[in-house]
Write a structure and sequence with these properties.
heterodimer; A: alpha+beta; Aldehyde Oxidoreductase, domain 3; Aldehyde Oxidoreductase, domain 4; seven-stranded mixed sheet; about 25% strand; B: alpha+beta; five-stranded antiparallel sheet; 11 helices; binds flavin-adenine dinucleotide
């Protein structure tokens, strides 16, 4: 039996090349005769373009071409499409204003591309970009989402009255009204989910390469899903048949969602390479990334929770205003609806839910999926209001959750917001997390912190997420404009080694290792004999089952038995109950050298493909616990302990699962304490560099205690659920709950993300003033 | 970044001559402030005069009760120097808190003081200790050296060659770092010197400054409690999205107390 199959902490196969500095990223690729593109971007949030004079730029040394919105329009390049149609309450379709690859007539956010300059060197392109003379008539702009829906607000798009893209809802308002009517306690909470920049360490890059001899395009691009990009470019933007376009996503240095979407730059370099007859390369600079990678989050929400006298939830009402930015990004519309409001039951048994979501355009960078996408926003609403409810009722924060968690005997559990959870054990993850953090001794730790002059706080969050969006038919009925299946091909080579091809892309998750482990598990071979070229897991398993079945027929022929009597175990085909057996390698060889082979009934070769369309979402979840120390003199919050217990389903590689949890936690703590994209009311981005935008650093984080309690998913062949986003979903509310807990004795009741030192200090000052006034009065 | 000519003079004299010959040239030391400026095209010098060959400017020595640090000594060198640790441990501590390891391995004390970033750490030590900036032609008292935001008393063709620090009885530096950049949001240097107690503040205002009220109070008794009841005005302090002027004023009090507790 192999020790490298499911459950083994195999070291990542891909790390060798990364650690040796031999990764192959888009910017590492240099094609012969390559040229360089630089984009001229708007410095205004909202303006009419009065002229674009490209004469001086075109005449500058080394310049090959300068393109503007007029060229894009003249060639009929399509507007960047949105992949999910959301319908408003009244049944009308969402408003979809055009999103041209280069601005036409108006610019709508700082960073909106206006012109593309291509030259023989990057320096020449940069210098010439400074010579493009753009005339602007500056218009009033909207930088903050609350301002978008005020009466008389300037219009981002003429097509969108009140700047609304849609006004959508889900759930049962009457049931919620009834719940509130009989409630013993009603808890109110207003909160903001702060806007984040994705900050993949590798900036976006793209190279377009048109081959005139074959009338064929190749695009190298920093994409998390090259198949989607090919589909969108083929059908909507570049308008070429798919067999004329190859999209290559080599190593990708982080995405977190931001590299899912179809961006203007990759379209433009592909198109321009044909116009110029030579490859065109573009690599973003970091300041450009801040202004052009889709941002995440940016919700303003008010929520109300109804509870009975004993703390059992009766109903939840949520109103959210979501910022979509200046244009609809590829999946922007789906995030605040089907990935957010459908999660508002959390891990709780909630009899009634009603959520209304308005999504508005503003003069800011488009907003789309970012690690967790909608689910962190939902968990933040729920976990903050659960804590507030506990304080208001005077109940213990752990107990109020215990009382409301869905019980094991309630699965499959149908929520009031469309989802059906197949399985889970939320009590077990809660207990495990409490054990890992040594909850019974918390008071001692608090006293030790107090002795150092620090205020210690304990924060909890019990959360759920939904992964593996599915099935295609249901997603389609809800507005998805693409399929959501996965595909895989398993090719057994003549000498028995295996190559796996999948449609999913790895940009940090370690697919090359985990998919090889699936092969190791099924075929009983070491992972070194497997090469996994790139939603692949379940499709890989389906394809492997087909391989094993075909192998049985070959083995039956060689062993002169019937296929029904052959079993496959530990890498050998055996006639059941005998010692007559053939190794997998022999079967593979026979399949390609079919001298003694059932050639009349079976084709030679051993290669199988499978498609997997999931039957349902999967539902990972768990409990995240955080302890913080607050310095009351400065307001600095230190995260001193983090213990989590997740249920991510079957674990293929525990080391990779831990690593994914660590990364997610770092980003989640980043959102809670450090990160925030700041726009001013006029739409200027005021912290678009690492001098101002604060990323979490290793030194800011404690060692994480990561535990798992597995209940396998019931409806996919492996039992996996998903792990990459858990940390980013579960931990932000736990951090904020811990900060509020630390400050509760001082009278502080609310802190918004990110909990910066000044914000915390001010909250302490304000609470002290109020308390003193009260005492004095 | 625009093209420039690159010079590597072998002596201070040659370096000064090159600067005189190229009026829009600039000195390059560790490049930790100059290169970001060039990349952002905030400056486009025609010539860069690198000090890399001037090994004699890297020396650190104690002489007649004064610690002299050559302009090209890196932050890392100062942080680890046995002489500095012995003479003014607060200075070694300060240098170890600048930026990150890469920055400390390249950045120099001469570059830091010549750049005069209002959020840099060294200016607090220079003013807090009453140091003297030595140039190719004169000596300038630290109190007169920093004249404003990114501006100093240096002439365009003048080179810092060393900084000379009188050794104090005790000193300490407490820094509250900007969360993103790690520069000083507020840094307070407190020193008990032969001439009395000095308190210098960096990061909080447009340039490093001394706090007379604190110095007077601490002159009577060098203890945190001496500062109680002395308000720091936020009127002339920096305020931005990271920290308002009031918050900076408050942090000056906190960091000053922490520095006093750490005096060594
Ligand atoms: C990521 C990062 C973080 C940082 N964090 C901090 C921090 O926390 N605290 C802090 O104090 N600083 C910080 N810095 C700045 C750093 O300390 C720089 O090293 C220092 O400001 C400049 O020194 P340098 O030798 O690199 O000078 P350079 O960058 O080479 O030069 C800076 C300026 O000084 C001039 N100059 C250089 N040497 C001389 C000389 N001998 N005579 C006359 N003029 C000269 C140059 O012409 C230029 O104008 C940080 C820098 C970076 C990149």
């Amino acid at each position: 039996m192999t020790t490298q199959g499911i459950g083994a902490a195999v070291r990542r196969k891909e790390d060798r090349r990364f650690l040796l500095g031999k990764g192959n990223y888009v910017d590492d690729i240099t094609l012969s005769n390559q040229s360089y593109a630089v984009f001229v971007r708007s410095m205004y949030a909202h303006a009419k373009i009065t002229k674009i004079d490209t004469k001086a730029a075109k005449a500058a040394p080394g310049v090959l071409a300068v393109f503007t919105g007029d060229d894009v329009a003249a060639d009929g390049l399509g507007t960047l499409p949105c992949g999910w149609l959301v319908k408003s309450k009244d049944g009308s379709n969402m408003v979809e204003p055009p999103h041209p690859a280069l601005a036409q007539g108006k610019v709508r956010h700082v960073g909106d591309p206006v012109a593309m300059v291509i030259a023989t060197s990057k320096a020449a392109a940069r210098a010439a970009a400074g010579l493009v003379d753009v005339g602007y008539d500056v218009l009033p702009a909207i930088g903050l989402v609350n301002d978008a829906v005020k009466p008389g607000a300037p219009a981002v798009h003429d097509e969108a009255p009140n700047n609304l893209c849609y006004d959508w809802h889900i759930g049962d308002p009457a049931a919620v009204d009834a719940a509130f009517a009989k409630a013993a306690h009603v808890v109110d909470l207003d909160l903001t989910n702060n806007r984040l920049a994705p900050n993949a360490i590798e900036p976006r890059a793209a190279i377009g390469d048109y081959d005139v001899a074959n009338d064929h395009y190749t695009l190298y691009t920093t994409s998390q899903n090259p198949h989607v990009i090919r589909l969108l470019m083929g059908a909507f933007t570049l308008h070429v048949p798919e067999h004329k376009l190859r999209v290559v996503a080599p190593d990708v240095g982080g995405g977190f969602g931001s590299k899912i979407f179809h961006y203007a730059e990759e379209l433009m370099v592909t198109w321009a390479s044909r116009k110029l007859g030579r490859p065109v390369k573009w690599t973003a600079e970091r300041s450009e990334s801040f202004l052009s990678d889709a941002h995440g989050r940016d919700h303003v929400t008010s929520a109300k929770l109804a509870l009975d006298a004993g703390g059992k939830i009766l109903g939840l009402r949520v109103r959210t205003l979501a910022n979509l930015g200046a244009y609809l990004s590829t999946f922007g519309s789906s995030v605040p609806t089907y990935l957010y409001a459908t999660l508002l039951s959390g891990p709780y048994d909630m009899p009634a839910i009603y959520a209304e979501v308005k999504a508005a355009f503003t003069n800011t960078v488009p907003v789309d999926a970012y690690r967790g996408a909608g689910r962190p926003e939902a968990a933040y609403v729920l976990e903050r209001i659960m804590d507030k409810a506990a304080r208001q009722i005077g109940m213990d924060r752990v107990e109020i959750r215990r009382k409301n968690l869905i019980r094991v005997d309630q699965f499959p559990y149908q929520t009031q917001v469309a989802l059906q959870y197949d399985t889970g054990n939320y009590q077990a993850t809660l207990d495990l997390a409490l054990e890992q953090i040594d909850y019974p001794n918390y008071d001692k730790r608090k006293a030790a912190s107090a002795a150092k002059g620090k205020l210690r706080g304990f924060g909890i969050s019990t959360y759920i997420e939904a992964c593996g969006i599915a099935p295609s038919a249901i997603a389609g009925a809800l507005g998805a404009r693409a399929g959501l299946y996965e595909a895989a091909t398993v090719r057994v080579n003549p000498t028995g080694s295996v190559t796996v091809f999948t449609g999913t892309h790895s940009h940090g998750q370690g697919h090359e290792t985990t998919f090889a482990q699936l092969v190791a598990e099924k075929l009983g071979m070491p992972v070194d004999n497997v090469d996994a070229a790139a939603v692949g897991g379940s499709a890989v398993v389906k394809a492997l089952d087909k391989v094993i079945d075909k192998g049985k027929k070959i083995a039956a022929h060689l062993l002169e038995a019937s296929a029904g009597d052959i079993e496959f175990k530990d890498g050998n085909y055996r006639v059941v109950g005998t010692d007559r057996a053939k190794a997998f390698g022999e079967i593979a060889f026979t399949a390609y050298v079919p001298h003694n082979y059932p050639i009349e009934t079976l084709e030679p070769g051993l290669e199988e493909s499978a498609y997997y369309d999931p039957k349902n979402f999967t539902f990972p979840g768990g409990c995240h616990l955080v302890e913080v120390e607050v310095d009351p003199d400065t307001g600095v919050v230190d995260v001193v302990d983090v213990a989590i217990a997740d249920d991510v389903g079957t674990i293929i590689n525990p080391m990779i699962v831990d690593g994914q949890a660590h990364g997610g936690l770092a980003q989640g703590i980043g959102q809670a304490l450090y990160e925030e994209v700041r726009y001013d009311a006029a739409g200027q981005l005021t912290n678009g560099s690492y001098m101002d935008y604060c990323m979490p650093r290793a030194a800011d984080l404690p060692n994480f205690k990561v535990g798992n309690h597995v209940t396998p998913c019931t409806h996919n062949p492996i039992g996996v659920k998903g792990v990459g986003e858990c940390g980013a979903i579960g931990v932000p509310p736990a951090v904020i709950n811990a900060v509020i807990d630390a400050l509760t004795p001082l009278g502080v009741t609310d802190i918004s993300m990110p909990a910066t030192p000044e914000k915390v200090w001010r909250a302490i000052q304000a609470a002290r003033t109020t308390t003193t006034t009260k005492k004095g009065g | 970044m625009k093209d420039f000519a690159f010079h590597r003079p072998a002596s201070v004299k040659d370096a000064v001559a090159l600067l005189r010959a190229h009026s829009s040239g600039k000195v390059l030391a560790g490049g930790q402030s100059l290169l970001p400026v060039l990349k952002l095209e905030l400056a486009e010098p025609s010539d860069l005069v690198s000090l890399g060959q001037l090994k004699e400017l890297r020396d650190i020595r104690v002489d007649g009760g004064k610690l002299a640090i050559g302009a090209l000594a890196t932050h890392d060198q100062v942080h680890h120097s046995a002489e500095v640790k012995k003479a003014i441990p607060a200075l070694a501590h300060l240098a170890g808190g600048i930026g990150d390891a890469q920055v400390r391995n390249r950045g120099t004390i001469g570059g830091s003081v010549a750049h005069a970033d209002p959020a840099a750490d060294y200016p607090a030590a220079l003013v807090g200790l009453g140091a003297t900036v030595i140039t190719d032609r004169r000596s300038i008292a630290a109190d007169d050296f920093f004249t404003g935001l990114f501006t100093t008393a240096l002439a365009a063709d003048e080179l810092v060659t060393a900084v000379q620090f009188p050794v104090p009885k005790r000193a300490a530096y407490a820094k509250f770092a900007h969360r993103a950049s790690k520069y000083a949001l507020v840094g307070v240097f407190v020193a008990e010197t032969a001439g009395g107690v000095r308190v210098a503040v960096t990061g909080a205002g447009p340039k490093v400054f001394r706090l007379a009220a604190y110095e007077a109070a601490l002159g009577k008794k060098l203890a945190p409690a001496s500062l109680d009841g002395i308000a720091v005005s936020s009127a002339d302090l920096n305020g931005d999205a990271e920290a308002s002027a009031e918050y900076r004023a408050h942090l000056i009090g906190v960091m000053a107390r922490r520095a006093i507790q750490a005096l060594a």
